[in-house]
Design a protein that fits this description.
The complex is a heterodimer of chains A (500) and B (279).
Chain A lengths: L2 H12 L2 H8 L3 H6 L10 H4 L12 H10 L7 H4 L7 H9 L3 H11 L3 H7 L11 H4 L8 H15 L14 E5 L3 H12 L3 E5 L8 H4 L8 H13 L3 E3 L10 H6 L2 E6 L5 E2 L12 E3 H10 L16 E5 L3 H12 L4 E6 L10 H9 L3 E4 L1 E8 L5 E14 L5 E5 L5 E4 L2 E4 L3 E2 L3 H5 L24 E3 L2 H4 L4 H23 L7
Parallel strand pairs in A: 1-2, 1-4, 2-3, 4-16, 6-14, 7-8, 7-14, 8-9
Antiparallel strand pairs in A: 5-15, 10-11, 11-12, 11-13
Helix pairs in contact in A: 5-7, 7-8, 7-11, 8-11, 9-11, 12-21, 16-17
Chain B lengths: L1 E10 L2 E7 L1 H6 L5 E5 L7 E9 L4 E7 L3 H8 L5 E2 L1 E6 L10 E7 L3 H13 L3 E8 L8 H6 L3 E6 L6 E2 L2 H11 L4 E5 L2 H13 L4 E4 L15 E4 L2 E4 H4 L2 E3 L5 H8 L3 H10 L2 H7 L1
Parallel strand pairs in B: 8-9, 8-12, 9-10, 10-11, 12-13
Antiparallel strand pairs in B: 1-2, 1-6, 2-5, 3-4, 3-7, 4-5, 13-16, 14-15
Helix pairs in contact in B: 5-6, 6-8
The chains are: A alpha/beta (500), B alpha/beta (279).
Chain lengths: 500, 279
């Protein structure tokens, strides 16, 4: 991306008459005096028994006031913190002026899933970390994430969902493998460029991790469905139950006229620790547990997928997936729902907000412990775990202090269910079916700066390239890949397209 | 939506369904399976692709009534639809000419055995099949297996057809008679376990097709994991076929029963039972 050009663009936008007027309507000093809005939340002891969304969303009054805090900076550093480059000041200023539908349009220029991102992005390390308040005033940033969510929800509830501006159809077929956040983003972007886009999804429902992974109390399925429906309205076709590499190979799809592909098949392969007893009944991956609950309705009456929920549940790991799993287990009736994490609470990779939500809901945290063995009863069902106490040693390559086992410190804890959430590896199905794809030692697909793989015309992004990462980084890859694909198709395959 | 174009009872509790799934019918090979989901509230269950007709765009599935979903499947009629059919999944069977192949199938395991028997024969092997069932009326695909085997031995628990006794008796008879280069055992886990113990005694390389619990079937959950040669493997992407002498069948048997009580409860409570009784 050409930053000089971008800066000029943002500057011109900022100088628009309405923005100028709005800026002058309130002194910066007055704006900085306003306190950051607090997100209304469902009562922890009510919500930990139901699937109701924890964050209840801002009211119109809260949104209008919060948007006033944004200083509409000359140099909007917040944008640089957003992986999909949303024109943040412009959308915030539309919020301040009460024109929420225009604000929604601004977000959707670069983000096809605003209601999702407003809920699940770690804004505190992205846009909000680059906000003038954070970096210069050392005070709480403008609540960009809350406002993105507010705007998206407002647009949806208004029934006036807009579709982004589209270029004329160019009848060039492109295939997207995987309907998770990366694939959906590429699909939306390429549809805007006028391509004939088909998304292939292996499961029976669209959305990837948005559906099978993230629970309803953080992201209701309906929210993702509405945003997927908007992408469908942009002309994108979806094929479920289609496993590329199995149902048909990429070569076969090429023969059907597909000219370029994006592989966004994610990091679905759960990691296990390979310790004794890990294959006992009742020890399962977070992916399996969350899929049974979120995708299959396993906890609902009249749904056929069985779900065992223990009374004493240990979730191994300290990331967002671990938090989702442990809070789900609590909601389904676990008496003891425990996080077992080998480092201290400060090192947990989960969002601070999720850790606090979990604590409020009565989740126990066993920090500085690591399981070394599971024991099972005569039916093979797990009955206890042996935990080893850890101490923090020297910082490792990533800068985090490595846990070191404390010899002779084994403790036995009774459990009847263990959920392993120690990370995921890239799904092997596409690499297995395409041996010519060059892989990295971490089993991820190797890509260049345009997100193109070592096979011309095949692009990749999201977790299949990064390993387990976040929704919005996958979407950032998607935007980059869409631009790369458009450039590739325009210059290599159809050299007339990019003349404009 | 995937249309059922043919339906036929093979035995009182086993039904053959031919289902329209053109893309799968073109891509499938012996050893592959599909994951199906009947309706919106349904579960995902794995079923081996028994046969396919790429020209008609259909695949053949064989279902034994054991619980809620399989029972619902047997109640579907020609012209009805299955909501989701995903596949072909798993690794296909490694087919090559090895000499004499002993193909052993127990109960509904004969269904996944059939495409392998057929492919082994086509590859130029001498194929001897041993089929086992509780009684004569529960024998599956006898005609089809006969058509692609050099010899077929039938074993029934009650002696109502063929020889009386377990499948291992038939297997040992062949092994004692002639050199076997490869054995394949498919059936209930307990049968595969004893089949594998027998061939191990004689040093015969043996493959088993494992039928573990699955959810997605694409490698993303690990519900189907088994221990093979001391290491964890996912049946849906690393299998379903493994060296039977390396499989920890004890662990697999325990894991297969993980939801047994729930399955039995939901089957006894579901509204299908009265329908069954009327039939």
């Amino acid at each position: 991306m050409d930053t000089t050009q971008d800066n000029e663009y943002y500057h011109n936008e900022r100088m628009a008459e309405w923005r100028d007027k709005l800026r002058k309507s309130l002194k910066s000093k007055e704006r900085t005096k306003i306190e950051r809005v607090k997100m209304p939340e469902e009562d922890p002891l009510v919500r930990n028994k139901s699937y109701v969304e924890v964050n209840k969303g801002l009211s119109v009054e809260q949104a209008l006031l919060e948007a006033k805090r944004c200083l509409d900076c000359v140099d909007p550093t917040c944008i640089t913190g957003c992986p999909v480059g949303i024109n943040i000041p412009k959308f915030l200023k539309f919020v301040e002026s009460g024109d929420f539908l225009s604000a929604a349009k601004v977000i959707k220029e670069t983000n096809s899933l605003p209601a999702v991102c407003g809920r699940v992005c770690p804004q505190e390390i992205q846009c909000e970390a680059q906000c003038f308040y954070t970096i210069k005033l050392k005070s709480p940033s403008a609540a960009i994430g809350y406002l993105e969510r507010f705007v998206a929800d407002y647009e949806r509830d208004s029934g006036k969902i807009s579709i982004p501006e589209m270029m004329p159809e160019n009848h060039i077929k492109v295939g997207i493998i995987g309907s998770g956040p990366a694939g959906l983003t590429v699909a939306g972007e390429l549809a805007k460029f006028g391509y004939d886009v088909t998304v292939f999804e292996a499961l029976h429902k669209l959305g990837g991790v948005l559906k099978y992974g993230i629970p309803d109390f953080r992201l209701p399925n309906m929210i993702a469905d509405v945003e997927i429906e908007t992408i469908r309205k942009m002309g994108v076709k979806f094929k479920t139950n289609f496993i590329v590499g199995k149902t048909a190979t990429i070569d076969e799809l090429k023969k059907q006229g597909f000219e370029a592909f994006f592989v966004g098949s994610g990091a679905g392969l759960p990691n296990f620790m390979n310790i004794p007893g890990e294959n006992s009944v009742g020890v399962l991956s977070a992916n399996e547990f969350l899929t049974r609950v979120n995708l299959m309705g396993g906890s609902k009456k009249d749904f056929d997928t069985p779900l065992y929920v223990g009374k004493q549940v240990a979730v191994i790991g300290g990331g967002n997936t671990a938090m989702d799993a442990v809070r789900t287990a609590k909601r389904l009736g676990a008496e003891r729902a425990m996080i077992v994490y080998r480092r201290s609470r400060d090192e947990m990779p989960a969002r601070k907000e999720e850790v606090h939500h979990a604590l409020d809901e009565g989740i126990e945290f066993l920090n500085l412990y690591s399981p070394i063995k599971y024991n099972a009863d005569e039916k093979g069902r797990v009955k206890n775990m042996i935990l080893q106490k850890m101490v923090l040693g020297e910082p490792d390559k990533s800068g985090r202090r490595s846990p070191v086992p404390l010899a002779g410190s084994e403790e036995e804890v009774a459990v009847d269910m263990v959920i392993v959430a120690i990370g995921v590896s890239p799904n092997p199905l596409i690499p297995q079916s395409m041996p010519e794809l060059e892989m990295t030692p971490r089993h991820t697909i190797k890509v260049d700066e345009n997100m193109m793989t070592t096979v011309p015309g095949i692009f990749a992004g999201g977790d299949i390239v990064r390993g387990g990462a976040t929704v919005v980084l996958a979407m950032g890859d998607g935007r980059k890949a869409a631009a790369g694909m458009h450039k590739y198709i325009s210059s290599v395959v159809h050299n007339h397209l990019l003349v404009s | 939506m995937y249309k059922i174009t043919e339906k036929e009872f093979q035995s009182p509790n086993v039904v053959k369904l031919v289902v329209e799934a053109p893309e799968i019918s073109r891509s499938r090979k012996a050893g592959h399976f599909v994951i199906i989901r009947i309706d919106e509230s349904g579960e995902r269950v794995p079923l081996t692709i028994v046969d396919s007709d790429p020209e008609k765009g259909t695949i053949t599935l064989i279902v034994q009534k054991v619980g809620v979903t399989s029972h619902k499947l047997t109640l579907l009629e020609k012209g009805d639809f299955i909501l989701d059919v995903a596949g072909p999944l798993g690794k296909s069977t490694h087919i090559e000419k090895v000499g004499t192949v002993l193909c052993c199938g127990g109960g509904v395991g004969v269904a996944p055995l059939y495409p392998i028997v057929s492919a082994m024969k086509k590859a130029g092997n001498k194929v001897i099949s041993v089929l086992a069932a509780k009684s004569a009326n529960l024998l599956l695909l006898e005609k089809e297996i006969n058509a692609c085997s050099d010899e077929v031995i039938i074993m029934t628990d009650d002696g109502s057809r063929g020889k009386k006794g377990l499948i291992t008796i038939g297997m040992e008879e062949i092994i004692n008679r002639e050199k076997v280069d490869l054995a394949i055992v498919i059936g209930p886990a307990i049968m595969m376990k004893f089949g594998a113990l027998l061939t191990k005694k004689y040093g015969i390389k043996t493959m088993a097709s494992l039928n573990t619990i699955m959810v997605d079937g694409t490698g993303m959950c690990g519900a189907c994991r088994v221990t093979v040669d001391g290491k964890t493997a996912f049946v849906c992407v690393d299998g379903p076929e493994f060296d039977a002498h390396q499989v920890n069948f004890e662990e697999m048997l325990l894991r297969l029963n993980a939801y047994k009580e729930m399955e039995e409860e939901s089957y006894s409570q579901c509204s299908l039972k009265p329908v069954l009784d009327e039939r």
